[in-house]
From TrEMBL, chains A, B:
Transmembrane segments: none annotated. The lineage of its organism: Bacteria, Pseudomonadati, Pseudomonadota, Betaproteobacteria, Burkholderiales. InterPro entries: MmgE/PrpD_sf (IPR036148), MmgE/PrpD_sf_1 (IPR042183), MmgE/PrpD_sf_2 (IPR042188), MmgE_PrpD (IPR005656), MmgE_PrpD_C (IPR045337), MmgE_PrpD_N (IPR045336). It comes from Zwartia hollandica. Pfam families: MmgE_PrpD_C, MmgE_PrpD_N. Residues 271-434 form the MmgE/PrpD C-terminal domain. SUPFAM superfamilies: 2-methylcitrate dehydratase PrpD. Residues 11-248 form the MmgE/PrpD N-terminal domain. It comes from the Bacteria. This is MmgE/PrpD family protein. GO terms for molecular function: lyase activity.
Amino acid sequence: MDRSSTLGVTQELAEFVASFEKGKLPSEVRHQVARSLVNWAGCAVGGSAHPALVKAMDAFKPFLGSGHASVLGRAERVDALHAALFNGISSHVLDFDDTHHATLVHPSGPVFSALLALSEFVPIDGDTFVTAIALGIEVECRIALGVCPAHYDIGWHVTGTVGGFGAATAVGYALKLNAQQMAWAYGIAATQAAGLREVFGTMCKSLHPGRAAQSGLSAALMAKQGFTSSERVLEAPRGFAHVMSVNPHLSDSLVDLGTRWVVMDNAFKPYACGLVIHPVIDGCISLHKKLGARTASIEKVHLRVNPLVLELTGKTEPRTGLEGKFSVYHSAAVVLIDGLSTSKHYTDTVVNRTDVVALRPKVSAEVDRSVAVDEAFLSITLNDGTTITQHVEHALGSLQKPMSDADINFKFLDLTAEKFSKEKSQQVLEQCWRVSQLANAGDLGAILRRE
Amino acid sequence: MDRSSTLGVTQELAEFVASFEKGKLPSEVRHQVARSLVNWAGCAVGGSAHPALVKAMDAFKPFLGSGHASVLGRAERVDALHAALFNGISSHVLDFDDTHHATLVHPSGPVFSALLALSEFVPIDGDTFVTAIALGIEVECRIALGVCPAHYDIGWHVTGTVGGFGAATAVGYALKLNAQQMAWAYGIAATQAAGLREVFGTMCKSLHPGRAAQSGLSAALMAKQGFTSSERVLEAPRGFAHVMSVNPHLSDSLVDLGTRWVVMDNAFKPYACGLVIHPVIDGCISLHKKLGARTASIEKVHLRVNPLVLELTGKTEPRTGLEGKFSVYHSAAVVLIDGLSTSKHYTDTVVNRTDVVALRPKVSAEVDRSVAVDEAFLSITLNDGTTITQHVEHALGSLQKPMSDADINFKFLDLTAEKFSKEKSQQVLEQCWRVSQLANAGDLGAILRRE
């Protein structure tokens, strides 16, 4: 396949999406989309009472349009553009959503938030819905592959920047955009692409997938009306890749388009914090078991980790739950004491708990480029001089050690426990798994609301 | 004043805005804000039937909120967030709005579009309105000064990227944000800042001030609810300036803040196309007068211009009105024939007019770094060998040769002629000039609608 020699990358992607026949989507890709849906919906319901969402909803309350679309886990119904924004926020605010490891994109937030909101207004059959999501994640992650890691290193939150392309793809496919309209949608999405890593640790981080969902949905809606844009926005000398990255390699990232599906590399997180902390948490769970009652006599804890761990989660003195998600020290301390990690371990209360605050300064971390991002070496010294070590080769949730469907169900039930009855959670789960067979995938919105 | 040694630039700007006493705004600044209002409102009404606006409104029609705010020049009333978007689009779509020459920012679109929309929902007295606009333009242009020209050279449309800071400032001042909330608003605006020059020549260009208005308005509304963000988003190592520019010089750009007002450098355009073409148009108007009936015997036209002219407006064969705005060749040809330049000279029809298309290829252009951006040297050779030259030292609308208030009124009446009756246009003009004295500046929205 050498389409890139005649078409630009933007048009190649647009042609691919516009001409894709949904029958050609492999069954394992369908299954992976369903896994992604369950994970995304659980995260959105779990984050639906978070102050970041509540404040955003309060800010926009006087300006909302008529209620075609659901805010997951809540009673409100709002216009689809704002539903996309709000569900994008709630699905990311716990830092518990999915990750494409190669690029650090969180693919589901922008894509599902946009398409589900639209499908409550324009019915979309389950088969088309699943195909549209697969295409959205595909385009989003492949564009990210073409500009990362430089793009992320510069300071861009790649979920915010490429998320709009994913959302535009999913919505554009469902709305049957032709290739030219799809290329325009990419132009419109690109010229709204934004999100700075500088705001990590504040409510703005979760704004990024929300805005990406809203911008991508907007882009597809506008392109369908004939709102024009560049038709080569990805690769042009002043286009997305060159302006927002260094030495991009977009063409390479399209190799095997349509035969290998990037969504298969989508990984789910068992723990509600930065992915790079996961191997440390796995190690601390194991060490907690080995320690038993001796947790109280820890003198020091030493971590040897990939450099990204301290770059992304190096906060030594977190004061809030949100900051706790960016502190490997907090995670290590609280998991060594409690022996497990749930979303409740990243609340203001737990971050300031006396025993956690006391153990935290005893944790030191050393970076080592030879340690993989899903790997960690831990060493604990007790007051009596005893040393206990632990090596985590691949963290749970990594591609080598993925969460099972049962793990994902467990996570969904945990995240929705405070919002839905057990019966309702089970019902919702069943509907999510059979998304491909639904006459209108938009019906999922209604059942994911809180009555 | 050495506040920057103790406060970061973000907080310095936030403190400045939050603590500004409106009585301290100089009268010449008030007058310049009124000039900017007349110019902005005229452009928005003039652009209100443009396909770019119509298509955007059609795309979002099912999702609009209740109608507190006016779409200028039209009958519709929509929610304030979308009014900000729509008026931002229409005010820029003719490429006829104001320009801060030092940075190429078009300051009014984001700022007026956001604040007028809000003031139709939350009444804002005229004095506060004018002060908020002055502060908005001040912050927007000073941030641009701190990152340009590198920011623009990289490929960012600076009006799209800094416009959100301006809109957030104006709205934040009117909503009485404290300094911390104002800093958050800058963080929220920064992490939504976007707009690529790659989309110039398409409908997306005018989307930029629209989205900037909407994003800035959103940012201030969210910050007021306590939606948190970075408090040093402008200057942080991974903040706006470092990620989106090279060697930024933010601190320098704050010198004389509060004593010298950048809005005084705001310039208005007499012609509905790229500013860099203006000296060529002035020259062609003069040459048309000199030529008289000899226009038909032009053999060749030679332009010697600043390099930016060909970089920004070098399209040799424009096919649409929009593309015509980016073709110095079209402008030279049509003005030599018609002897004047109005918004009607950038329609599909005129760009494809037989006499214009015939003269266009006879126009050649040479770039010369020693020629200023508001300067041009023109030379015409006739069939009989006669040569006629023209040197334009400063184009009309430059800081050295600004449009008078009467010029701006003439432009407003021209732009609104197809939408309003003469009487209505005169009434609206009067209300705009006395904006400072209005009990609610939001009343301007209603009178700028089309009945």
